Fold these 2 entries.
Entry 1:
Amino acid sequence: MEAEVNSDIRKIIIIGSGPAGLTAAIYAARANLAPLLFAGGVYGGQLMLTTEVENYPGFPEGIQGPELMEKFRAQAERFGTEIYNVDVTRVDFSAVPLRVWTDEAEYAARAVVVASGASAIWLGLDGETRLRGRGVSSCATCDGAFFKEKDITVVGGGDTAIEEALFLTRFATNVTVIHRRDALRASKIMQQRAFAHPKVSFVWDSAVEDIVGDKHVTGIRLRNVKTGAFSDRKTDAVFVAIGHRPNTDVFANELELDEKGYIRSEDGVHTNKRGVFVAGDVNDFHYRQAVTAAGMGCRAAMEAERYLEAIESEAALAS
Ligand SMILES: Cc1cc2nc3c(=O)[nH]c(=O)nc-3n(C[C@H](O)[C@H](O)[C@H](O)COP(=O)(O)OP(=O)(O)OC[C@H]3O[C@@H](n4cnc5c(N)ncnc54)[C@H](O)[C@@H]3O)c2cc1C
């Protein structure tokens, strides 16, 4: 089927409906830029996968992740953001206007904010999906405080896994790191810290085969990858720290990416293409928090607004 062509040139298109994209939309809409936002087939971003969010400012009692994202969306819509729950499947940022395609239609805009986020890489186990938010997490900063005086398991062997394990020692009685190999990939300094920590222990050469529990995580089933032997361990929480994948496939030929596929930006807001701005976890692999993503969305929208004003002045001078 031929994509329908929308001849209107929009001022701004925003790609992504997590905290970064929806915050960019709130700012762009209140600046009268009439934003069009592509929310993605799975709208709301990563917070839709979690239960309680206790560290987003303004909610002293905490708030459920999906409810928080409903509020973001309602606020963006209140000021006139047009939102389509579809994925952007192709972009062309080589010329102005910038072009964006979905499966059904083609759109054009003078500025684009890319806020397509990232996805945690999961183990792919049934128990992991069923118990997510009930003891299974991928974010120690977000969920560690729920497990005070508990036994915590961390899965992974890279820097992130070890950082998460060390952070979790603030709450846990003990933290066990499960790793498929017999040595860590983490940097030497992180390894030294982990090996020296009295609360951290390791189970080597082991893969998690299942995460078990009825309403909450109660244990894990392991398989020794060398002997094939199975064993069961009790634990109260499992933090999966085997990496994140930025959602950048669609942009790979248009924007400069780093070696891990994140969109590169010198200042955390401008990309290598004029008029294309970036916000949130698709650029930031370090902080990965809703509040930092929202802050980046605000910056991207304000920079886009300045850019649009500048090109309007250039056009006025030229005419
Ligand atoms: C289990 C879990 C618990 C967490 N808990 C907390 C917490 O308690 N506190 C906290 O601050 N942070 C928490 N985080 C981290 C937080 O969710 C992220 O930092 C934040 O959501 C990043 O926002 P973002 O807008 O950059 O991207 P995302 O939330 O990843 O949203 C990106 C959006 O873009 C869409 N998208 C992707 N590609 C396309 C495309 N081609 N076209 C259209 N749309 C597209 C996706 O569908 C998605 O909706 C948690 C994360 C997880 C996974």
Entry 2:
Amino acid sequence: MKQLFLIIFGSFLMSGLSAQTWFHADTIMKHINYLASEELQGRGTGTEGEKLASDYIVSYFKNWKLKPAGENNDYLQEFDFEAGVHGQGGRKGKANNVAGYLDNGSKFTVVIGAHYDHLGTGIDGHSLDPHSEGKVHNGADDNASGTAGVLELARYFSTNTEKEPFNFLFVCFSGEELGLLGSAYYSEHPGIDLKNVTCMINMDMVGRLKQDEPVLEVSGIGTAPEWKSILEKFQSKALKIQMDSAGVGPSDHTSFYNKDIPVLHFFTGTHSDYHKPSDDVDKINAEGEEAVLMIISGIIAQLPVDRKLEFLKTRNPSMNSSKSFKVTLGIMPSYTGGTDGLKVEAVIDDKPAFKAGMKDGDIITKIGDNEIHDIQDYMKALGKFEKGQSAIVTVNRNGNLVELKVTF
Ligand SMILES: [Zn+2]
């Protein structure tokens, strides 16, 4: 397997991502088309649309003869949820995780997960559309793409002719958008013994790999000493891997990191449709996702088989402290670095930066008197302002410096 893999993978990288692979863009697209269709009404946690999505996932898990790994010998695992700020004061109900286990009789297990819920019709207050209520948030990238990734990897690992040296747990979480509820519950009530899990791989938003200069963001590199050298093998001119060490982040791998399990989170980057009704299927790059799945299967082929990865604790990301800020600019920063300043991936409608005329793609170089070279500078500078204060924010827009007056 390993030899064959490296040969195929080598040709795959050299051909600029256009080679034959064992994942299929059309199948990825088929899954995303259904999961992000109007019929599923945005897969809000505990809704009828989410039920249709879990039925869909279960039908494939059954087809591939995965063992039920939810609860009560079922693929589903029900848990209680409450929406609202910090899981309080909102809609209450029951939602389901979906889990299937591929038992290869191996010593160790790889967990492959993604959340399949999204924002539904924008009623729980997590939408970035200022008038979200009643609008279907299809969540094609977030996270029909990751769910399709779980399905494609499950298909591949359960139907390939060569027996893999690992068992696999495939799990689709609900309640992620309400605060990682499903994965937190699953990690407390797992359908398999987590003691034999060597790592957890999470895909959250893997459907929007850029066509020119594609970058795949992978976080969790610091959670095992082996990750960096494994990941380096998949660096290529055709697809740059941007690594981040943190094991804690805004997605479900955090729940497994908290159980001392090495994790990786795969992410093709933020965009201006994030958490908006416009996160639709027409913007999905299915060939790009195919490449992401090739890299994930390649990484799995590089894992040690005779021992578990060694778990390491990582620094907490500086973004965690943003919750304590009194002010916000209202942008989605780019986490990929590589520019002097802070690149604005997306400007959020009706927030201070938007009102001041900031544009997607601007690079923030100064806030008031504070020079901004990276995200740390940016966080430090924001911490100095109070609500209602104004500041001149200097941005680099296509090589020209533009000054914007922002009122926080
Ligand atoms: Zn997500």
